[in-house]
Amino acid sequence: MIDWLTEVLVFDRIYWYLAIPFTVLLVIQLIATFVGFGGDGDFDSGEDGLDVGDDGDFEPGFKIFTVRNLITFFAVFGWSGITFSHAGLGQFATITLSTILGIIVLLIVSALFYFITKLADSGTMNIQRSKGATGEVYLPIPAKGNGVGKVSITFQGSFRELDAMTDEEEVISRGTMIVVKDVINNSILLVEKINKGDV
Fold this sequence. Notes:
Blueprint: H1 2-35, E1 50-52, E2 58-60, H2 67-86, H3 91-122, E3 134-139, E4 149-155, E5 158-165, E6 177-184, E7 188-193
Parallel strand pairs: 5-7
Antiparallel strand pairs: 1-2, 3-4, 3-6, 4-5, 6-7
């Protein structure tokens, strides 16, 4: 009887050893997320749920084995194990159910962060993607790169007004259709007029 009681206490103690520290880490991570610490609030050095694309952008990716997810899993695993054990379930049933519950919550958290990251990515403008986009001159653009005008273009699914220059010999007047040739200093579009025959 004493051996059985000792075994039960040791079994419960393992769950307490997992539940308490991982819950503390989870709370710290949640606070870090809300205050914006480390960008996405994770301890994965910016690698959680984000893949670097060919053009240098961060693209959302569905990742399961990250530090945040492991913290979430062990916190849920620990507390659910304590709950099931105190409910009178056997050790095998407790381990099985707490593992399943931890995995379910882990997958839910992964999915939530995946969709949040995807939404954030879709709203971030990458001006390099404007190359080849067409638009209309909003403010006249001086000739030969002697000044900056503005153009209205649509790219990445959004309508934007951006600064633009041209290396053409003549001023590009308001209302003229243009195409983006390049991007200068990652902030100013280099554009040229679209000839009527090219439309």
